[in-house]
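Standup notes
- HV: blocked on the assembly model, inputs below
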Amino acid sequence: MTSTATPPAPTPERVLIFDTTLRDGEQCPGATMTFEEKIQVAELLDQMGVDIIEAGYPAASNGDFEAVSEIARRTERAIVAGLARTAPNDIDRAAAAVRGARRGRVHTFVSTSPVHMKYKLQKSPDEVLAMSIASVERARNLIDDVEWSAEDGTRTELDFLCRCVEGVIKAGATTINIPDTVGYTTPDEYRALFRAVRERVPNSDKAIFSVHCHNDLGMAVANSLAGVEGGARQVECTINGIGERAGNAALEEIVMALRVRGDAYPYDTGIESTLLTRASKLVASATSFPVQYNKAIVGRNAFAHESGIHQDGMLKHTQTYEIMTPATVGVSKTSLVMGKHSGRAAFRSKLEEMGHRLSDNQLQDVFGRFKDLCDRKKHVYDEDIEALVDENVAEAHNRIRLVSLTVIAGTRGPQRATLRLDIDGRAATEEADGNGPVDAVFNAIKALVPHEAALELYQVHAVTEGTDAQAEVSVRLGAEGRSVTARGADPDTLVASAKAYLGALNKLLAGGTRLHAQHAAE
Ligand code: KIV
Ligand code: ZN
């Protein structure tokens, strides 16, 4: 007799989440993070359940090596990976950097596409195959967990890709990554590529296959999911989708697509989704890259319902316009925080509720700033408090600090700024004119801290609503081939601008960039 009972749904297959925010994300122009910021991001990724944290490229600099080593030592659950080219020194540095990890991985890569081999590497396919095998063998002599990536894999000839994959698996690679380095593939193509490689390569069952997609045509997430359908069981992605050019596939979008559309994608991840919003805010603050308002999952409008028709539907039933609840991704409703009569204990517990654990000294500082803000602003919201915490974290190691700023602005120019800074413990004051008040402020900074860094971006947002909202300014400066971005928040846009500009100068100094031969802070 045949049973009419519905068979139990198959257990979803596990897909590993490999986060490369600290490597592919951090290497994009302007997203540089400090050592402390990298540690904080790694801690949250580990807590969130990321399976593999790619912590950096250890051979790039001593700073990168130290950050990867420290993350390896501190990480409690995730595998910690270090990137390496095929060069022996790269492999040795990566293996050394992850040695202190509970489980470390060396991730070695080489270009395999005709255009990259001919113009970038100037090597023949046979040479590239030999380099790949030698790099994996060298890494396997140092560590058990080795990933090999075929850079520009989606523009690689299939036969050659299969030869390489077979060779590196034989040499000991345990994960095979086929990146869409230039964001060129389509979902159908990428799915078929994984199916073909897994079918053709005789030892393909000995390794886990991985997707790694860039977003040049806006298809990184769709391509990654198609790769999973083609048999990949590891997804490489970044928080907020930051990364080279148009970025990488966004972790939060992959995780929520798999969760919300489990019917179409029967795969599971180990990610605690309620931490996604916190991770997004932390990365946005550490990199000073603002999150697009309408960004899926973590944009500030992702759960906002503005039109009357939508609001009416939402009031009748939330499922009319919401496919997931804000709570599943950790969004709490914007809430009015305590006012100026709130005490320190209530403030500390509010911060903890928002996911911030501050030391006593930090709490003292942020609480002082909060009280000042209450004097200047009628309503203080969670977002305002976030901005104060960001400011405290950013300023902890600053050599240049803002003491005071007065600006004369209006229709009758020239606009004039009087600025007082503390530079390495010494106070200095300067007055400067400008073509507009922001220009005057930046000219005053330039007079006090002479530098050749170029202003690459200046952007103003309101942190909350209303004319007394805090302005949040982002400034990106470039010098000696490095770009850094910093943010500053204040109810006064000009003060926020000065804080952001000084923040970027401090980041350049912290990264070892010389601003100018004889500037006051040297
Ligand atoms: O996009 C890419 O190809 C990469 C590799 C180094 C994995 O980031
Ligand atoms: Zn990449």
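- HV (later): unblocked. The longest strand covers residues 400-408. Residues 517-522 have pLDDT under 50 and may be disordered.
- Next: hand off to the docking folks.
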